[in-house]
Design goal:
Length: about 220
């Protein structure tokens, strides 16, 4: 869908101009029978992945789930290493079927890659997934009551790429129809869209609305 394309382009541009210092990070290989080790990447051919703390997303807590067909990598540099293998598909399906919830702790960026580090509440299950291809999604985005709001939010997000002035009128109208926790989620999401539009730095993906992850 076009909204995925537009925002992927925007965040890819942000990745190319990111100058965050490189951080070395080791990810625990949870319950995987795959013992392949990542091959060293020459800094003269590829600088590797740059790791950025996902401060706002980390505060979201454990509200993300894996799709059953998600590709999950052991280490952040595995993403750019063609010889490295991801977690076994059976492990991913087990995480999805058991409704294991994750939180995002960091982002890894390469020249054209954007991945998120995820970890479950036990700390035993963790890895790296591509952020914008539907491998990961917000559990609240599946609620039927929130679908009109999400549709309106995606339309607003797309408007900036269509030469239109973004308007939150429809999203606010949809939020007014909601009650209880759904209304709280909606108001929070609208605020995050405002923050997304207001952000002028190189790390736009760190400001992406949480509710729209996977959409």
């Amino acid at each position: 869908m076009k909204h995925k394309y537009f925002r992927t382009v925007l965040c890819s541009a942000a990745i190319l101009f990111s100058f965050t210092p490189l951080t070395t990070l080791t990810v625990t290989k949870a319950e995987s029978t795959d013992t392949a080790k990542p091959t060293a990447v020459s800094p003269t051919t590829d600088p590797g992945m740059i790791v950025t703390p996902a401060k706002r997303f980390s505060k979201e807590g454990y509200v993300f789930k894996l799709a059953r067909n998600a590709i999950v990598y052991h280490e952040v540099n595995d993403v750019i290493n063609d010889t490295s293998k991801p977690f076994d598909k059976s492990w991913v399906k087990k995480m999805a079927d058991k409704n294991i919830k994750f939180k995002i702790t960091e982002f890894g960026t390469g020249r054209v890659e954007l991945v998120a580090h995820i970890v479950d509440q036990s700390g035993k299950n963790q890895g790296w997934v591509t952020f914008f291809n539907g491998d990961l999604y917000n559990i609240y985005a599946k609620r039927k009551a929130l679908q009109p709001l999400i549709k309106a939010e995606l339309k607003v997000m797309d408007s900036q790429f269509e030469g239109k002035k973004p308007s939150l009128i429809q999203t606010k109208n949809e939020a007014k129809k909601l009650h209880g926790q759904n209304k709280k989620i909606a108001n929070k999401s609208i605020k995050e869209i405002k923050d997304w539009f207001a952000y002028k730095g190189d790390l736009a993906y760190t400001q992406y609305p949480s509710l729209l992850v996977g959409k």
